[in-house]
C-alpha cells in the first residue's frame, strides 16, 4: 500500500522535474561544525549523479525524500564528476581543521550511482590536503561491506572515514510502513558490524541519521521514537548521531499528507526535548540538523521563538551541552498537543480546535 502510493507520487514528481545540468546541480558551502577532535570547519559538497537507486526503483523510494528531483536521472562520466569536484574544492583555502561531507543524494558506495573512478579520485585527492581530518560519505547499508570499505580506507590512510547511514528509526514497522525505507535493522547492524570490524586497522566511524517525525506519527510518538532510536544506535556501536527533523520536500508522500492537513513537521520544542534527552543519556556526539527550522515547510514553533531556539540548537551542536529552555507563549500549545495528539494522530486540527 505505502509502496504503491510512494511509486505513484514519485512518478508524478519525476514528470515535473526540470532537468538541470551537472554544473547547476553541484554546489558547496562551508560552516562551523563539530569534528571528532572538537570545533572546526566543515565543507559540504553536493555532487550530481543519476540519483538514488532506491528512489528510482519500483519501490518509489522514501516517503519524505525528494533528492531525486535534484539529480540528473542519467549517468554522468567520471571525468566530468572529477572536474566538478576539483572546481568546487579548489575554491577553499583549507587552513583550519576541516571535515568534508560529500552528498550525492544517494549512496556514495553504490558504483551504479557514483562511478568507482570518481570515488577513488576524490578520496586520493582529499588525502593530500593536510588540514582535512574527516571525510564523510553516505550510503544505504546494502552497499556497505568490508571489501569496499577497505578500498576506501586505503586511499585515505591519514584521515577519518565516516560512513553515514539513514537508519531513520530503530522501529522496523515504522521504517517499512511509514518511511518505505526498504531495509531492516538486521541490514543496518550488518553494515555497522563491517565498519566496526575494521576499526583496528583504520580510522573508520559510522553515523546514523534519525528522522524526527515520520508520517502517521503523533508528536509524542515522534519524540519517543527519536529517543529510542538514538539509544539503539549507540548500543550497537554507532559513533555519532545526526537527527533530521522532517521538512516537507516537494513531490513526496509527506507533502501529499501535509497538503491535506494530515501531517505537520515537528515542533521545535520537541527537538529540544530530544536533544536534552540525548545529552543526558548518550555518550556519543549527537547533532540536530537545523536547515529547515522556522520555515513554513520545516519544524516550527512561533515567530517569536523560532530563530532564538534555532541559535541555541546550533550552539548546542557545537558544545554538546543541554539547552536551557526559554519562555514563550507557544510552549503550552505544544505541551497540549503532545498530550492530545495521540488520540487522532493528527496535529494541526487539534491545535486549532482546542486553542482556535
Ligand atoms: S532518503 Fe536516501 S535512500 Fe531514501 S530515497 Fe532519499 S536518498 Fe534514497
Ligand atoms: Zn514561541
Q: Which descriptors would you attach to this protein?
A:
single chain; 356 residues; alpha/beta; TIM Barrel; 8-stranded mixed sheet; binds iron/sulfur cluster; binds zinc ion
How does this model look, in words?
This protein has 356 residues and is of the alpha/beta class. It has one domain (2-323): TIM Barrel (Alpha-Beta Barrel), CATH 3.20.20. 43% of the residues lie in helices and 16% in strands. The chain contains 14 helices and eight strands. The protein has helices spanning 2-16, 22-25, 53-56, 78-89, 116-127, 146-155, 172-178, 185-197, 219-236, 253-259, 268-281, 306-319, 330-344, 348-355, and strands spanning 27-35, 38-46, 98-103, 132-138, 160-168, 204-212, 240-245, 286-288. Strands 1-2-3-4-5-6-7-8 form an eight-stranded mixed sheet. The protein is globular, with a radius of gyration of 20 Å.
Architecture blueprint of SSEs:
Elements: H1 2-16, H2 22-25, E1 27-35, E2 38-46, H3 53-56, H4 78-89, E3 98-103, H5 116-127, E4 132-138, H6 146-155, E5 160-168, H7 172-178, H8 185-197, E6 204-212, H9 219-236, E7 240-245, H10 253-259, H11 268-281, E8 286-288, H12 306-319, H13 330-344, H14 348-355
The chain binds iron/sulfur cluster (SF4) and zinc ion (ZN).
Zinc ion binds near residues 301, 302, 304, 305 and 328.
CATH class: Alpha Beta
Radius of gyration: 20 Å
Sum up the overall morphology in one term.
globular
Beta-strand percentage range: 15-25%
Strand pairing plus helix content: what structural class? alpha/beta
Query: How many domain modules?
Result: 1
SSE topology string: HHEEHHEHEHEHHEHEHHEHHH
User: Within the largest sheet, what's the order of strands?
Assistant: 1-2-3-4-5-6-7-8
Query: Span between N and C termini?
Result: 35 Å
Largest sheet: 8 strands, mixed
- Ranges with pLDDT <50 over ≥5 residues? 343-356
Mean pLDDT: 94
Q: What ligand species are in this complex?
A: iron/sulfur cluster, zinc ion
What's the tally of helices? 14
**What is the name of the CATH topology?**
TIM Barrel
- How much helicity do the residues have? 40-55%
The count of β-strands is: 8
Any guess at the CATH architecture?
A: Alpha-Beta Barrel
Amino acid at each position: 500500500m505505502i509502496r504503491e502510493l510512494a511509486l505513484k507520487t514519485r512518478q508524478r514528481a519525476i514528470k515535473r522535474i526540470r532537468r538541470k545540468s551537472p554544473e547547476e546541480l553541484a554546489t558547496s558551502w562551508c560552516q562551523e561544525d563539530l569534528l571528532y577532535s572538537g570545533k572546526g570547519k566543515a565543507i559540504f559538497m553536493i555532487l550530481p549523479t543519476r540519483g538514488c537507486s532506491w528512489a528510482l526503483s519500483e519501490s518509489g523510494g522514501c516517503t519524505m525524500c525528494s533528492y531525486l528531483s535534484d539529480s540528473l536521472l542519467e549517468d554522468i562520466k567520471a571525468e566530468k564528476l572529477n572536474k566538478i569536484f576539483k572546481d568546487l574544492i579548489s575554491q577553499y583555502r583549507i587552513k583550519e581543521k576541516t571535515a568534508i561531507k560529500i552528498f550525492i543524494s544517494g549512496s556514495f558506495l553504490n558504483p551504479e550511482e557514483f562511478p568507482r573512478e570518481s570515488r577513488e579520485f576524490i578520496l586520493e585527492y582529499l588525502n593530500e590536503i593536510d588540514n582535512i581530518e574527516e571525510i564523510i560519505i553516505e550510503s544505504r547499508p546494502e552497499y556497505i561491506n568490508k571489501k569496499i570499505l577497505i578500498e576506501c580506507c586505503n586511499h585515505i590512510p591519514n584521515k577519518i572515514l565516516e560512513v553515514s547511514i539513514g537508519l531513520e528509526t530503530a522501529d522496523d514497522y515504522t521504517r517499512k510502513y511509514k518511511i518505505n525505507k526498504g531495509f531492516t535493522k538486521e541490514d543496518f547492524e550488518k553494515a555497522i558490524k563491517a565498519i566496526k570490524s575494521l576499526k583496528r586497522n583504520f580510522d573508520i566511524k559510522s553515523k546514523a541519521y534519525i528522522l524526527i517525525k515520520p508520517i502517521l506519527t503523533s508528536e509524542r510518538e515522534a519524540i519517543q521514537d527519536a529517543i529510542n532510536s538514538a539509544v539503539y544506535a549507540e548500543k550497537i556501536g554507532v559513533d555519532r548521531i545526526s537527527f533530521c527533523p522532517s521538512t516537507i520536500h516537494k513531490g513526496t508522500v509527506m507533502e501529499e499528507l501535509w497538503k491535506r492537513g494530515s501531517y505537520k513537521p515537528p515542533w521545535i520544542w520537541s527537538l529540544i526535548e530530544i536533544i536534552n534527552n540525548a545529552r543526558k543519556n548518550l555518550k556519543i556526539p549527537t547533532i540536530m540538523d537545523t536547515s529547515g527550522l522556522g520555515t513554513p515547510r520545516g519544524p516550527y514553533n512561533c515567530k517569536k521563538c523560532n530563530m532564538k531556539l534555532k541559535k541555541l540548537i546550533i550552539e548546542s551542536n557545537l558544545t554538546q551541552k543541554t539547552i536551557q529552555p526559554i519562555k514563550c507563549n507557544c510552549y503550552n500549545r505544544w505541551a497540549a498537543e503532545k498530550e492530545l495528539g495521540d488520540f487522532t494522530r493528527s496535529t494541526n486540527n487539534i491545535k486549532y480546535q482546542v486553542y482556535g
